[in-house]
Structure formats: C-alpha cells, structure tokens
Q: What sequence folds into this?
C-alpha cells in the first residue's frame, strides 16, 4: 500500500513519534482519513510531552549527550531556549569555533543533536555546538525564515504575527558565547535541515558578516526570495540533497503545496555559485560507493573558490531521501526515504568549515 503523508504533519515529527512508540509506521499506511487521525494523535502526544517537560515532569524526549547543557537567553522580552555542547564536557581555555545546528519544522534542538551526531564529533575536534529551539517554550517549533529582519516591526508585522525575532535570537546566542569567551567570532558556522536549512540561508543572506561558512541539508530558498536577494558577502557553501526527497523535492516541489515555490537543489547551488562570482560549470566527481546496501550513490560538484575565496560544494545523493547523510539510524526509510551511508555529512561539514574564517 502506498505510504500517505498528511500534508500538514512535518516529517521529523513522524520520526519522533515512531522513536517514542506513540504510533507505529504501519498506522501511517492506511486510508486518508485514518492517516490524518493518526497524525493528529502524534501532534497531541508531542504537545503533551513538551508540556510535561516544561512543568518538570518526565516526558518521552530525546536524551542529551554528555557535555550538553540547557541554556536560555532573554531576547525581545521573551525567554528563548537552546542547548550548548562543550567538547568533552570541558570549558575551553580560549575561544574555539562554534557551529549552530538548526532543527527542522516541528522538532527541536535535542532531536537535532541526536540526528546529526555533531556533539560526538565536537568532542574529537574541539568546537562548540549550539542547538537552538524555534519554539520559545522549548517544544516543537518552526523557524520563521520567510520574514526579513526589516519586516519584523510595525502594524503589518503585528497583523501577520511576524514579530518574533528568530534572526535576532540566533545572533544574540552567538554574542553571548563570544562575550563569555567561549566562541571565536571569526569562526562561527551554520547548518540546518529542512526548515532549518531555509533559515540557514536566510541568515547567510542577511547576516553573512557573522558566519564564515554554511552547510544546509535538504532545504533551499523560496524563489521569490532568490529573485531579489543580495547576500552581504560571498559565502562558502556546502550542500546536501537527495534526489528522491519527497518532502522538500530535489526539483523544488514541496509536499505541502505540491508546487515548485522554492529553488530546486541544482538551481540553488548555481545561485550561490553565481553570487560568489563563479558562473562556470563545476568540477564533477564520483566518490566511492562505500555502502552499496544503502541504495544510494553520491556525486560531488565543486565550484572553485575564485577571487572571493568562497567555493560551493554540492553532494548530490542519488536515491537519497529527506535525511541527514550518515546520521542517526532512527531515520525510518519508509517515512523519509533512504539515508546515504557512503558519506558522513557532519564530518564533511567540519572538514569544510575548518578551512574558513572571517577576516
């Protein structure tokens, strides 16, 4: 029977639900009405879980990795929550690089820590990782990537409900860690998946002077945004996208509207290459198929750095789904698609990030 995705249920919410045993994968294989009912039950369980956590009760949420601590910051009169991972649970003696990892829609920082494995990587490499929460309560949230900073004030913003300042919150977290002499302001990097990838691009365009490089996964740019956007500087970009992504389509078609409202993966990397002054064709390579059993192969396309010193590298995951390459084993194939085991996105990100720093 064909798998049905309720159009209003974010995919990583389904991952959390199946991980916690709230609903079986088979439940999402029924008729349309039954599927919607199951999806409603998932979100109700998520709400209950996060409410219990906020009240100090026990809730079925992902456990934090050793060395990860809960933090909060008051921004715009609202307490915003985030997780900080210190490498080897030890405060560094001098400022070190910082990676911000932004979650997908209707998930949170704790889930993203488990998905990416970045905390374990940081223990070996010595960088900080921040996992922020879009939802001020620390529950399941969505990043507001569609509102420009200058559009967050005034009557129109209030009528549209667009006064929550996610951009400012994330920049304030960086400032806090720089002030505490934990983070090196010249070596701040940004990644995110899905909704978090779209937010990554928003920040890179508007606040490129704060980030040395970015590495989004499975999320591009709205076409309307791309048409008029002018990044503040050339940006080193590393990107991953599966050709069989049914949620944020490789061709730019999203599963919610069924329309191509965002740049497709190939148009997206070409967009950044052109903004970085590199319009020529990329150098194409085929890395080894190290895990034939995963049903995926990888192609790497590289636009060289050029005078601006900002390369664009694209990992095209043939057969890959809406997944984090090399990430958690809990990414269910039947729901999200195949996970490439030929590469480790987190390790490749750090290898890429380590090459760049702000002047």
A:
């Amino acid at each position: 029977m064909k798998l049905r995705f309720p159009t209003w249920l974010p995919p990583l919410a389904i991952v959390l639900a199946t991980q916690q045993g709230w609903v079986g994968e088979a439940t999402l294989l029924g008729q349309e009405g039954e599927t919607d009912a199951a999806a409603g039950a998932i979100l109700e369980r998520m709400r209950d879980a996060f409410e219990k956590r906020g009240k100090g009760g026990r809730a079925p949420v992902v456990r934090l990795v050793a060395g990860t601590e809960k933090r909060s910051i008051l921004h715009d009169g609202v307490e915003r929550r985030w997780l900080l991972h210190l490498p080897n649970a030890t405060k560094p003696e001098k400022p070190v690089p910082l990676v911000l990892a932004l979650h997908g829609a209707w998930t949170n920082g704790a889930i993203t820590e488990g998905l990416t494995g970045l905390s374990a990587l940081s223990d070996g490499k010595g960088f900080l990782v921040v996992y922020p929460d879009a939802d001020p309560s620390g529950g399941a949230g969505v990043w507001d990537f569609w509102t420009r900073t200058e559009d967050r004030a005034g009557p129109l913003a209030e009528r549209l409900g667009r006064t929550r300042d996610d951009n400012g919150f994330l920049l304030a977290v960086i400032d806090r860690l720089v002030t505490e002499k934990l983070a090196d302001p010249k070596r701040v990097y940004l990644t995110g998946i899905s909704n978090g990838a779209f937010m990554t691009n928003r920040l890179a365009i508007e606040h490129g002077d704060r980030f040395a490089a970015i590495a989004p996964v499975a999320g591009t740019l709205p076409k309307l945004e791309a048409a008029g956007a002018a990044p503040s500087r050339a940006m080193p970009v590393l990107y991953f996208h599966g050709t069989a992504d049914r949620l944020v389509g490789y061709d730019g078609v999203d599963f919610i509207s069924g329309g191509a409202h965002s740049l497709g993966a190939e148009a997206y990397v070409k967009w950044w290459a052109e903004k970085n002054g590199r319009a020529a064709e990329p150098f194409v390579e085929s890395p080894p198929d190290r895990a034939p059993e995963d049903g995926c192969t990888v192609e790497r396309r590289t636009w060289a750095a050029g005078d601006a010193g900002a390369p664009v590298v694209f990992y095209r995951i043939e057969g890959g789904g809406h997944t984090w390459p090399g990430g958690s084993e809990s990414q269910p194939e039947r729901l999200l698609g195949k996970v490439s085991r030929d590469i480790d996105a987190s390790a490749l990100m750090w290898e890429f990030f380590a090459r760049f720093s702000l002047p």
Residues 284 and 301 are 5 Å apart (CA to CA).
